[in-house]
Amino acid sequence: MPDTPKKQRLASLDAIRGLTIAGMILVNNPGDWSHVFRPLLHAEWNGWTPTDWIFPFFLFIMGVAMALSLRVRIETLEHKAAVWLKIFKRTVLLFGLGLVLSAFRVYDVSLVKFLGIFLVLALLVAGLFAYLRLRFDTAEERGAEARRIFNATLFWVLLAVLLAGFYSFNFSNVRIPGVLQRIALCYLVVSAMMVLLPRPRDQWIAMGALILVYLVIMYGLYVPGHGRAVWTPEGHASGYIDRLVFGLKHLWSGTRDAGYDPEGIVTTLPAVLSVFLGLQFGKVLVRVQDHKERLFQWLALGSFLTVLGLTLDFLIPINKQLWTPTYSIFMAGLGGLLLAGCYWLIDMQGTDKWARPFVMMGMNPLIIFWFSGFLVRNMFLVKVGDTNLRHWLYVNGFTSWLGDTNLASLAFALSNVIFWLLVGWFMYRRRWFVKI
Q: In this model, does residue 139 exceed pLDDT 80?
């Protein structure tokens, strides 16, 4: 193995992306929420579980990748307006897809048949169009044309879902914050830093200002009935702002009683730090070409951030619900160590067989995550007897032989992961890469 890496896509980045998406699907889809193994649940408040690693790892690795992808866009696009257009398009698309998923919780069931008919027609038209366009092309042209047809079909299907949503969604209680929405906002802020503030010092100053705003709000804002600097589920300032801006009905149902959203406005500020710290690891990837030196810097930086986060936990608790700065720092440190480990195993040693399913999923991470949520919501809408399709599959496929246990619930969640790993493999084999 030479000491200088080749100019190619790093499989370790895709592997971590795939691992995090698989983790999200795993923890989001237990068979029964009353039967879940403790490590697959978030920490109730302060502290962390393995589940609390997943989302910050995804934001972290997004920051690593941005050091490569957005840098290329900034350098290759002649006008900054073109860069901003691409940034805003991706931000709006991510945020919009997140809203669609949130709105499916209050979707009008009468439109399911309409959407089903539209999907069948869209696939038939796409198939006919593909036949007419591909039968005369060369093999290479057919591959490129097939990807364009797939992307166009996907666009029209998503547009139909969105338009149907505007007709039928009950927007009076749709959750506005969300996972994809947070990803969109973090991407927008860090992208803006890279475009507007090319000097690293200025970027660090801007990031420090955002964290300072977070701390001023959390420590200084008076919350009626609770006071200042209260870091409890019901009394923290972030939740107070969420209630003022969104209203209780637009917050996540799991924390609505406490009056906050885990992906709320104020807590998004330190979430930006997760992406920003990932960006620093990505800069090492760009700047350092020697394998061993790159690995050493990642290990050193990851270890430093991990220890720093644990040390600062005595001042500001590590808390996923509030996405505290210490949580961002600590998780970025662990993410950096994971990156170094995967880089050594996959890209340096070539020990990649175990990672190939996750690499394939990591080539289409966000679209797989979106469709995994989309499918679950549709399964709730399909009636089978006196229950819905999801519950019917769980009862007949898992509890019927594993009992009403944590193991049955875990097996159902793992079956979801396996299904979407197969989808990732299918898309990879056909070179279908959907960029969001």
A: no
